[in-house]
Amino acid sequence: MLRVFLIAMIAWTSAAQAAEYRVQPGDTLHLEVMEDPDMRRSVLVLPDGTVSLPLAGTMVAAGLTVPEIENMILDAIAPNYVTLPHLTVSVASLAKPKRQERARVNAPTRKVARAASVAPVITVFAMGELAKPGKLDVPAGTNILQFLAQAGGFTRFAASKRVILRRTDPKTGQQVAYRLNAKKMMSGTSDSVVLISGDVIVVPERKLFE
């Protein structure tokens, strides 16, 4: 009996801590709507703290608790349903802690040469109608088609003609959005864009008859 009580207390404490946890950029949220299986998805919280969802659009999630995010999304999607939908939001995974570079003092020449030969890697974020949205580390020089392939390709709901590339200007800090036609890129009638670190690829949901 005592064991059952302790297990229940641990479960209650974990639930309470989860409810108080404030979402951070890099976290992955899992969303389910009981009445709409197509809304089931995992979304990455982008560096600017936002998430983008069908029917809800783009909204700021960073700094909010899971119950607060649930209420925010529910208010946004409720007008699209006849009755109030049953929404569940959970934290699927936490942001990976940033690696701290270790100081290298009098490092052997052989090790330095080996490190210099490693190809540079950039970090790109993907969200929307892709098989594997999230944060991906890819070799520098990767173009958008290669990146989409590494992200598992489009889902059947993807608007491949309206892919959005969100890029932050390193000089001004301003974010610029570019609309790209991935379908033309795949057919060879349009050039594929080379990505840089910090780029965000957004694949929206296609409209009816699109």
Q: Give the termini distance in whole angstroms.
A: 60 Å
Oligomer: single chain
Contiguous uncertain segments of 5+ residues: 4-16, 101-105
Structural class: alpha+beta
Question: Biggest sheet: strands, sense, closure?
Answer: 5 strands, mixed
Number of strands: 10
Order of helices and strands: HEEEEHEHEEHEEHE
* Overall geometry: globular
The percentage of residues in β strands lies in 25-35%
Query: How many helices?
Result: 5
Radius of gyration: 21 Å
**How is the largest sheet built, in terms of strand order?**
7-6-10-8-9
Mean pLDDT: 80
Question: Helix proportion of residues, in percent?
Answer: 10-25%
Concise account of the structure shown:
The protein is α+β, with helices and mostly antiparallel strands. It has five helices and ten strands.
Q: What does this molecule look like?
A:
The protein is an alpha+beta fold and 210 residues long. It is built from five helices and ten strands. The chain has helices at residues 2-20, 66-77, 109-116, 144-150, 182-187; strands at residues 28-33, 36-44, 50-53, 57-60, 87-93, 121-128, 134-139, 163-168, 175-180, 200-203. The strands form three sheets. It has a five-stranded mixed β-sheet with strand order 7-6-10-8-9, covered by helices on one side. A three-stranded antiparallel β-sheet has the order 2-1-5, with helices on one face. A hairpin with a 5-residue loop joins strand 6 (121-128) and strand 7 (134-139). It is globular and about 45 Å long. The model is unreliable at 4-16 and 101-105 (pLDDT under 50).
